[in-house]
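Your task:
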Amino acid sequence: CSSDLEACRDRESLVGSLAAASRWILATGAVAGFLEAVRFLSKSPLLLKAVTRLPICLSTVIVSNLGDVSRRMRAGVPKIGGRDAPGGLVIRGFRGVPPLRPRTRASVAVLPYAGTTTLCCLCSAGSNPRNAGREFLELIRDELDGFK
């Protein structure tokens, strides 16, 4: 809904809450616990499905930083202008986002490649989710432009 985007426009509050959440994640080792729980649940697809359907909020926004995907090429691929060019086809960039899960409002992927960082977003907020995703990315872009 539009109130979610309004909360994102309050830069001080948003940055403060992200910083607090990041400190908590680092201090508690929550990532390791989360990954261990997912590993355990993934052994039973029915259990994993049941847990992800519980009426609790596991995350409001999923953010995935995939790192430089060119490092994952399996063979020595030639480059043209700093970009991978398998078979002479120049890869200009990568796009994609993790899927939205129940009760998750947005999924954002950070994809650095060839000196450029691409942000992709899938959003379930508002009456027009496609537009809400664009608005959310514009807010992020505006904030990033402010750091230059």
Summary: The beta strands are 61-65, 79-80, 83-84, 106-113, 116-123.
